[in-house]
Amino acid sequence: MSVVEPTSSARRKPRIALMGEFSAGKSTLSNLLMGQRPLPEKVTATRLSPVWISNGTRAPYRVDVDGTTEPVDIENLEGIPVEQTRNIRLFLECDILEVCDLIDFPGISDPNMSPAVWERMLPEVDAVIWCTHATQAWRQSEAAVWDDMPQAVRENSTLLITRFDKLTNEKDRNRVVKRVTRETQGQFGGIFPVSLLQAIQAGDDYDKWERSGAGPFTSHLIDVIEKLTALTARTELPLYNVDSLSDIPQPVAKTVSPRRIQRSPDAVRPARERTRIETPEDPSASIADPVLRSS
């Protein structure tokens, strides 16, 4: 598959999808990443088309399957016709959306929703954060969907074993992590057990934040976004449409080095780890390695 060379004005932010089955923690994850609820309290994402969230203050709108758009009332999103809607576009101002877009997918196994509702949004995706519930981690239905994911997306995706606090003893925790790591070998760029709710509740308690598992995950995510930023500067195509990362044109000589994404040292917050853009020359730039990566 050929890759279109981007023009100087074609730079776009990486697009990261939040995916998984129902009750796996996607809504809690989006809350953690953005430091706020992207949807009103009474609105759930379970019966919505994919919600594409970008930085900004624009009014929300829906995109029909034929590409037409119309304004929507954010308080009445659940009234939007799912089968006829490609995605819902929301705009918020928060740190993570300054460096990437997030696409919140509905649960993959809803018997009342056609898979086409979320499958048609996959071509917009560069990477995925996949949530799998610790007590029934990595079900066959999840593996079946992931088997069809292009390798270029897999390499930059992350698997979260969520609600890890529901496993009450160390033996069960080790068993689940080992099994999931074995069954997904080579299919994700990183695997992290985490309690997202504990991370949100940590407040200013840094130790509690680290114990929740969110510390290693968010450090890894910064690394992933940095890599994706460099890749998306070199192609207009989302990585879902790229057969291999080797198909993406290499930077030509004398081009400006990709901007570097780095945690602000004075803005590490347990409830939401802020990011900022730094130049590669920043001597303080360093990215923590994840505690567990798939081999």
Automatic annotation (TrEMBL):
<protein>
    <submittedName>
        <fullName>Dynamin family protein</fullName>
    </submittedName>
</protein>
<dbReference type="InterPro" id="IPR027417">
    <property type="entry name" value="P-loop_NTPase"/>
</dbReference>
<dbReference type="Pfam" id="PF00350">
    <property type="entry name" value="Dynamin_N"/>
</dbReference>
<dbReference type="InterPro" id="IPR045063">
    <property type="entry name" value="Dynamin_N"/>
</dbReference>
<feature type="domain" description="Dynamin N-terminal">
    <location>
        <begin position="16"/>
        <end position="144"/>
    </location>
</feature>
<feature type="compositionally biased region" description="Basic and acidic residues">
    <location>
        <begin position="269"/>
        <end position="279"/>
    </location>
</feature>
<feature type="region of interest" description="Disordered">
    <location>
        <begin position="253"/>
        <end position="295"/>
    </location>
</feature>
